[in-house]
Amino acid sequence: MFKKAWIKYVMLTLAVILGTLATTTTGAAAATKEPHYVITTDTTYPPFELQDKNGQYVGIDIDILKAIAKREHFTYKLVPISFNSGAQAVLSGQFDAIMAGMAITPARKLVYDFGTPYYKTGVIAAIAKNSKIKSLNDLRGKTVALKTGTGAAAYALSIQKQYGFKVTYFNDSNTMYNDVALGNTVATFEDEPVMKYAIQNGVKLKILTKPANSGYYGFGVKKGHNQELIAKFNAGFAAIKKDGTYDKIVAKYIGAKESTFAGSAAVNNSIWGLLKQNKNQFLAGIGQTLMLTILGIILATIFGVIIGILAIVPNKFSHGFASTIIYIFRGLPLLVLAFFIYIGIPSLTGHKFSALLAGLITLMLNEGAYIAAFVAGGLKSVDNGQMEAARSLGLSYWKAMRKVVMPQGIKLMVPSFVNQFIITLKDTSILSAIGIIELTQTGTVIISRNSQGFRVWFLVAMMYLIMITLLTFLAKWADKKFGNN
Prior knowledge:
The protein contains 20 helices and twelve strands. By secondary structure, the chain is α/β, with parallel strands linked by helices. It has three domains: 35-118 and 216-266, D-Maltodextrin-Binding Protein, domain 2 (3-Layer(aba) Sandwich), CATH 3.40.190; 120-214, D-Maltodextrin-Binding Protein, domain 2, CATH 3.40.190.10; 279-482, MetI-like fold, CATH 1.10.3720. Strands 1, 4, 5, 6, 7, 8, 9, 10, 11 and 12 form a ten-stranded mixed β-sheet that branches. The longest helix is centred in the middle third of the chain and has 34 residues, at 279-312.
């Protein structure tokens, strides 16, 4: 009776999940007759994009987009993701446009159409406060840090041969800044207003050079697509330039301090203060992490059990199929699999995935492959005599498997199942790369605003440690209650 109720509960849960995912992308469009777009941004690039204490996205880019949308009567969904991933996702058709401090370059003009350039900037080099480097000539033979896919990185590469430095790459600005401040790399290249904001808010760097390679930021769409959106952006931008709205937006953020967005004139950057100021974001990040973990392990378990059983069925085709699935999805790194599902498949098929759905599919396939391997191993470890005895009593193969072999094998698998649950919890952090704001990405977003890397990562680490400790206690309890003791 209990087993039947449990199966019904799981099936109902899956139905609700799939129904929610299926309606996520259509609900917003149905709610309004105004044109609706999905636009990506990078919320770790202050003062152009960042998150305030209430978890709302603010910044020069965000406010410009909001003002233009209001004037031109269109709605949009803003999806935060790392800059490089967002730029690729626009080209794959996942998003309609990108508004993320994207420098307009000749190479990008080949694949993007840009609206009216909206901000002029220049690239500067920055070094640690105690650095002895005096000019770019001193970089010869040393390593500099660059942010993947940015105009600043492109400029640095253009002068790399001239000054003889080596490069290493990072996906977010704060990690890049800290790498230089700690002395792991000797310098970085960044857009001037972004670096000035970071230094003003506590990053221990200093500017080495004057602005160079002056260029413009642009609002970009895939070349030849969404021309109506580009037209609306251009018309709206002209309007906010004419009436002074644009100048007010820029003045609001250039030179601003973290306290402007933290909601307090005197920001408390102690560990307790950071926890108190950002509790809503942390709670949301924890909730997203747990939701991904629970749904991911449910889907992975269903997938893994099916594949694991097929791996031991005395049939060459099913055995070969299951072995191939296990080999492929255990062999692919989780990050590569996530990018392939979220960006690669839409490029080929034109079918969009939400970040949540892509993340759940990634966890299902990757974690499910590991589950399949230990399910197959657990079932194989049951003495062959058990199956033979059951068959001799007249039970069919599948009935003998369900009634005799599986109950014994499951006892052996319980510790592995719970350990996989813990691994899945940790693996959710990788999904931040495709724009899911779980706990790790929450930490990155908070740091981009306040530059308190050590304290925020300490808090994030403690939160993960608490969750994993609770799951470890669960593993021990489950092993004691259901294991083969």
